Amino acid sequence: MAINYVQPGNSIKLPVTSGAKSGAWEMIGDLAVVLNGDADNNDNAQCNLIGVYSLEVIGADNAGDAAISAGGKVYVDGTVLNADDTDGLHFGHALDTVNAGETKEIRVRLKQG
Fold first, then answer.
1. pLDDT tens by residue, 2-51
2. Residue 92, Cα to own-chain centre: how many angstroms?
3. Residue 112 — pLDDT band, cuts 50, 70, 90?
4. Mean pLDDT of the residues in the chain
5. Residue 68, phi then psi, degrees to nearest 5
6. Residue ranges per domain, the chain?
7. Over the Cα atoms of the chain, what is R_g?
8. Inter-residue contact 58 to 72 (CB < 8 Å)
9. For 100, phi and psi rounded to 5 degrees?
10. Helix (H) or strand (E) run with residue 47 in it
11. What's the CA gap between 48 and 25, in Å, rounded?
């Protein structure tokens, strides 16, 4: 093992939004994370960087209603997860479908790398 090895990197303490709660999703720079605990008094929380989570996703993009298929990319667009690849940041992949115009809780796999 390398002498500078720190940890596997599956979960790590990172700065998050003040008051963020366990189970909330965030983008920290280009990292898609889900909090594994509430933010502490210094606005840090243990964050998962891998895994599949049940999250609310909207079937829309910047042009209007848009379906998301299983395997399709999910984006952070402001404060929501949707299909907007124009204005959004890549967050992960849908493992279930969302119909155009629908808001639905689905399984989302966090993007890797």
1. 999 999 999 999 999 999 999 999 999 999 999 999 999 999 999 999 99
2. 6
3. confident
4. 97
5. -125, 125
6. 11-48, 52-110
7. 15
8. no
9. -55, 130
10. strand 44-48
11. 9
Q: Tell me how far apart the alpha carbons of residues 37 and 27 are, in angstroms, rounded to a whole number.
A: 16
The single-letter DSSP state of residue 68 is B
Q: What is the DSSP letter of 98?
A: B
What angle is formed at CA 56 by the lines to CA 53 and CA 58, rounded to 5 degrees?
Answer: 130
Residue pair 67/99 in contact (Cβ under 8 Å)? The answer is yes
The residues near 103 (Cβ < 8 Å, ≥ 6 apart) are 56, 57, 58, 59
| b/e sequence 31-68, b meaning 16+ C-beta within 10 Å | ebbbbbbebeeeeebbbbbeeebebebbbbbeeeebbb
Sign for the pseudo-dihedral over CA of 7, 14, 73, 57: positive
List of residues 6+ apart from 14 with CB closer than 8 A: 28, 31, 33, 44, 45, 47
The encoded tokens of residue 88 equal 């959004």
